[in-house]
Amino acid sequence: MAMRQCMRRAGASLRPCTPIRSLATSRGRGAAAATATAVQGSNLPQEVIESIQRDTTLCNPDPHPDSKTAGLVTDQLQYMVPTYVRPMPMFEKGEGCYLWDVENRQYLDFTAGIAVNALGHCDPGVTQTIQNQAAQLMHTSNLYHNPWTGLLSKELVSRTKQSGAMQDAARAFICNSGSEANEAAIKFARKAGRTLDPSGEKHRILSFHQSFHGRTLGALSATPNPKYQKPFAPMLPGFHYGTFNDIAALDTLITDKTCGVIVEPIQGEGGVNVATEEFLLALRRRCNETGALLIFDEIQCGLGRTGSLWAHGDHPSEAHPDILTTAKALGNGFPVGATLVSEKVSSMIQTGDHGTTFGGNPLGARVAHHIIGRLSDPQLQQSVRQKEQVFRQCFGRLQQRFPQQIGETRGKGLMLGLQLHDDPAPIITAARERGLLIITCGTNTLRFVPPLIITQAEIEKGMAILEDAMTAVFATNEHVPPTRGQQEMGGGSA
Ligand SMILES: Cc1ncc(COP(=O)(O)O)c(C=O)c1O
């Protein structure tokens, strides 16, 4: 770290390095040895020489203060509200499982835009669908019919039922994001509570610690992370929190005053924590007893990510929800979300109860309609389960090699977590500088949510890079600066 800081502090005085650095990056690793030798005899400070030598061994060292990237970032950052902390590379192109930065350096992407680009970057079918519909009709508002909002709703309902998930799915409300899908779910639960008990007493919503449901005030009120909630307190009234997978507490937590319970069948941001079937069954049973609606947030874990269309689809119908929310992969990068409900829930919603200007516009709806068909493919889902095994074998090797640093693995399909004992931020940097993008979640968990189309060769390539990165951080004690943002954003959340 000291070396890199010194390097950055040296800033402008490092002009002589620039050609050397460009030589290293433009000619690749072949030039590395020559560069290292060239700087050895120079009159640069020793720590700068060491820093350059280190960088020349990396394929994608983070851009330096005198780089094209830094120039662009410095120019633009001052105009953006500082809600995010980002590492230096600036991405301008994507294809399949790869991204390229503005300096034309390639990165293998194990993040898929936080579980969004399930079909990979710039999938030709998705791009073509966007182009076709953009040339035909993009938006008319929800004051008028269009062919795609209804077709998408029908497709979501029928694909869901066919897949063996949520057997009561009957209708969908289409919106633009995960938070909005959850806002709709929370409002529908409140409306159902008021319908069942007009006194207004049945308004409580239960959610669980380590959950993440979004940043809008309703979704945030259901996200009991002090880091997110505290600056915006007070939260909305009526929100309560339980411990994930704690069945014993449910009888006290879910009462006649509860109108809704929202849960992720696999918690994403919270650390890739899988709900047990017993827990989901117990939630369903208690919701039936009290007349509360059960809401599954499958915004991250749904749409093929676990090797089934929906994560809860592997559980019996006695563990299915009344409301199911989705977004992320539904648009593969195009902003679209949906709230699926049973006929019982829908019957309690009236015209004017909820709405959106953009939600369900022909462009987003047609894109999502195309994508849900592709993600329902049983072959894709089977391949996701096979690829889970490839990851797990690689995890096993890493665990054997670094038993002091690596703990358990969690998750399902291509939503996997590798628990580290310490802060993974330096590993994130070391991996990125070697050409692999990876994110964290929970407490010290490395999160693996690559595009579902990733190949076995790409998984093995990425895992080899990760092993190199871990070797640098754990074994050779190389000082790698941590990636900021992974913590400040609470595990890289959206
Ligand atoms: C499980 C879950 N729910 C809701 C959200 C919020 O979605 P969005 O960022 O699209 O509003 C996220 C985003 O990370 C999520 O993972």
From TrEMBL:
<dbReference type="InterPro" id="IPR049704">
    <property type="entry name" value="Aminotrans_3_PPA_site"/>
</dbReference>
<dbReference type="GO" id="GO:0042802">
    <property type="term" value="F:identical protein binding"/>
</dbReference>
<dbReference type="InterPro" id="IPR015421">
    <property type="entry name" value="PyrdxlP-dep_Trfase_major"/>
</dbReference>
<dbReference type="InterPro" id="IPR015424">
    <property type="entry name" value="PyrdxlP-dep_Trfase"/>
</dbReference>
<dbReference type="GO" id="GO:0008453">
    <property type="term" value="F:alanine-glyoxylate transaminase activity"/>
</dbReference>
<dbReference type="InterPro" id="IPR015422">
    <property type="entry name" value="PyrdxlP-dep_Trfase_small"/>
</dbReference>
<keyword id="KW-0028">Amino-acid biosynthesis</keyword>
<keyword id="KW-0032">Aminotransferase</keyword>
<dbReference type="InterPro" id="IPR050103">
    <property type="entry name" value="Class-III_PLP-dep_AT"/>
</dbReference>
<dbReference type="GO" id="GO:0006526">
    <property type="term" value="P:L-arginine biosynthetic process"/>
</dbReference>
<dbReference type="InterPro" id="IPR005814">
    <property type="entry name" value="Aminotrans_3"/>
</dbReference>
<keyword id="KW-0663">Pyridoxal phosphate</keyword>
<keyword id="KW-0601">Photorespiration</keyword>
<dbReference type="GO" id="GO:0005759">
    <property type="term" value="C:mitochondrial matrix"/>
</dbReference>
<dbReference type="GO" id="GO:0009853">
    <property type="term" value="P:photorespiration"/>
</dbReference>
<protein>
    <submittedName>
        <fullName>Uncharacterized protein</fullName>
    </submittedName>
</protein>
<keyword id="KW-0808">Transferase</keyword>
<comment type="pathway">
    <text>Amino-acid biosynthesis; L-arginine biosynthesis; N(2)-acetyl-L-ornithine from L-glutamate: step 4/4.</text>
</comment>
<dbReference type="Pfam" id="PF00202">
    <property type="entry name" value="Aminotran_3"/>
</dbReference>
<dbReference type="InterPro" id="IPR004636">
    <property type="entry name" value="AcOrn/SuccOrn_fam"/>
</dbReference>
<comment type="similarity">
    <text>Belongs to the class-III pyridoxal-phosphate-dependent aminotransferase family.</text>
</comment>
<dbReference type="GO" id="GO:0030170">
    <property type="term" value="F:pyridoxal phosphate binding"/>
</dbReference>
